[in-house]
Amino acid sequence: MAEWIGINRRARRCYGFDEVALVPGAQTVNPNEVDTSFEFNGKRFKIPILAAAMDGVVNVKFAIEMSRLGGIAVLNLDGIQTRYEDPDGVLEEIAKATPQKATELIQAVYTTPIKEKLVTKRVAEIKKAKAMAVVSCIPANAEKFSKLAVSAGADIFIIQSTVTTIKHVSTQYKTLNLIKFCKSMKIPVILGNCVTYETTLELMQTGASGLLIGVGPGAACTTRGVLGIGVPQVTATVDASGARDFHYKRTGKYVSIITDGGMNRGGDICKAFACGADAVMIGSSFARAQEAPGRGFHWGMATSHVNLPRGTRIQVGTTGLLKEILLGPAKVDDGSQNLLGALRTSMGSLGASNLKEMHDVEIIIAPSIQTEGKIFQVGQRVGMGK
Q1: Partners of 191 in beta bridges
Q2: Do 99 and 313 touch, CB atoms closer than 8 A?
Q3: What positions carry a catalytic annotation?
Q4: How far is CA 221 from the centre of its chain?
Q5: Strands 72-76, 297-299: parallel, antiparallel or unpaired by DSSP?
Q6: Which of these, 96, 90, 140, lies nearest to 111 by C-alpha position?
Q7: Is there a domain that residue 6 lies in?
Q8: Residues 6+ apart with CB under 8 A from 311
């Protein structure tokens, strides 16, 4: 599979969403009769799409609305919501900043210490509305914040960093024992992020219930440019799904694969499921919702790094209600709204009655799939030409 890139050095060819297409099979299904639900740790969710733990996307109100609609929104416990009693003023300041000052301002805003009482308060606010409380933090804060979150009623806990492995070497600080942590937790744990078969398989052995797949594909992330690391999401998802299936065959435990990032249209989401994902996590599409706290702006989780930011603030605009983005009716022509409707229609056209059957549809390498016959859309910057 690998190709020579120079003397004594070979590299594997990997693929992203824009390079592949899905092939219709021998049958079709009524889109109104397909099952798009996502089962996680014994609980079923109508919408297999998670809203990413980004401060421009998820606050308490957004999490409540997402839960009401049947999906999951992840609250960032390392972010603005737990650093400020009244985060709206800070978010307004970020939205008004010039592009030249935005990263510098975000770096300054995140130097305010996290208040443990706000960790408890935010989770309690979500639970008071009888909504799913799903929270995320970095490994360094996991032991402390997990106790606070669980006591406040959190339903799922996520540990997230740019790259997560079982073996983390450091002489400067105590590393988190992921196996011990997952075993001690009373609620399901999701770990992320990773992109390779071997690491996925190792992380599944911790006892985690799900894994986030993706390094650097997010719309506001600059990790691939700053650090030069990452694997395109089609290949990363296929490899991770292969590890999941091997782990399930060997142990009988099914660990959910959640493709994280790189999707901003319905077609991307459909391709992620065809690659083997059980659910997907997106940020920029939800940052465009009226309910999103970013006011039409979106920035990556690593933007606030003091010395080496790996994200930028981007303007995505506000295009509609969260319900419209998820369930329609779509009011834009670029595939960024009615994401569930797109998934249903794709599944019907491919003959897949449920997400498990989506894992078996044919995928072809098709580098012209985005441009073939689209000269007028490209020239007029409408639809797929945006």
Answers
A1: 159, 211
A2: yes
A3: 221
A4: 12
A5: unpaired
A6: 90
A7: no
A8: 218, 220, 221, 222, 223, 299, 300, 301, 302, 303, 304
Counted domains in the chain: 1
Q: Taking CA 43 as the corner, what is the angle to CA 140 and CA 358, rounded to the nearest 5 degrees?
A: 95
* DSSP bridge pairs for 289: 320
Distance CA 380, CA 252 (A): 52
pTM: 0.94
CB contact at 8 A, 277 and 186: no
Stated length of the chain: 386
Does residue 371 register a pLDDT over 80? no
Please report how the helices 339-350 and 266-274 are oriented relative to each other, as an axis angle in degrees rounded to 10: 50
CA gap 366, 15 in Å, rounded: 10
Q: Given the DSSP bridges, would you call strands 156-160 and 189-194 parallel, antiparallel or unpaired?
A: parallel
Token look-up 């044919």 returns 362
pLDDT, tens digit (0-9, with 9 covering 90-100), for 36-45: 999 999 999 9
Per-residue pLDDT tens over the stretch 199-256: 999 999 999 999 999 998 988 888 888 899 999 999 999 999 999 999 999 999 999 9
State residue 376's pLDDT score.
67
Is 316 contained in some domain?
A: yes
Contact 42, 36 (CB under 8 A): no
pLDDT of residue 123: 98
CB 300 within 8 A of CB 224: no
Instruction: Give the model's pLDDT for residue 367.
Output: 87
Neighbours of 31 (CB within 10 A): 16
151 backbone dihedrals φ, ψ, rounded to 5°: -65, -25
Q: For the domain that residue 167 is a member of, what is the CATH number?
A: 3.20.20.70
338: containing domain: 16-385
Residue 182 near residue 150, CB atoms below 8 Å = no
Q: Per the structure block, which two tokens stand in for 194?
A: 């990773």
- Give Cβ neighbours of residue 109 (< 8 Å, ≥ 6 apart): 80, 83, 90, 93, 94, 304
Does 9 fall in a domain? no
3-state secondary structure of 365: strand
Residue 233 token pair = 């999401």
Partners of residue 20 on adjacent β-strands: 365
Q: Are 319 and 335 in contact (CB under 8 A)?
A: no
Give domain status of residue 368, yes or no. Answer: yes
**Residue 34 predicted with pLDDT over 70:** yes
Pairing of strands 279-282, 297-299: unpaired
